[in-house]
Amino acid sequence: QVHLVESGGGLAQPGESRRLSCATSGFTFSRHSMGWARQIPGKPLEWVATIYADGSNAKYLDSVKGRFTISRDNAKNTLYLQMNNLKEEDTALYYCAKGEYTVPGEYTHWGQGAQVTVSS
Fold first, then answer.
1. Is 46 helix (H, G, I), strand (E, B) or coil?
2. Among residues 28, 55, 56, 69, which is most buried (max CB within 10 A)?
3. 99 DSSP 8-state letter
């Protein structure tokens, strides 16, 4: 069974950095695109970043470009989201998601989410 477990969330001050991790199991991680999405209260779910199975390409939400970096360690079956220069508007529940293909497409499995709160 597919399992995705996010970690690394918590409280941060504006300008600080955090790294989210998504530990995975139950599938061949290196053959699947992965992504991060977030839910901000009162707003629609939005894709933050996606990455190809081999890590060769990544795409980002405009508002996080230059601040966030998605990466993966296929040897460890782990996905990461490095978040730099956090802003209060980044406060959200962040989800790790597993894609069906080697490139972005349908995402069929989701983690439970990790809360990131950015506040002074």
1. strand
2. 69
3. E
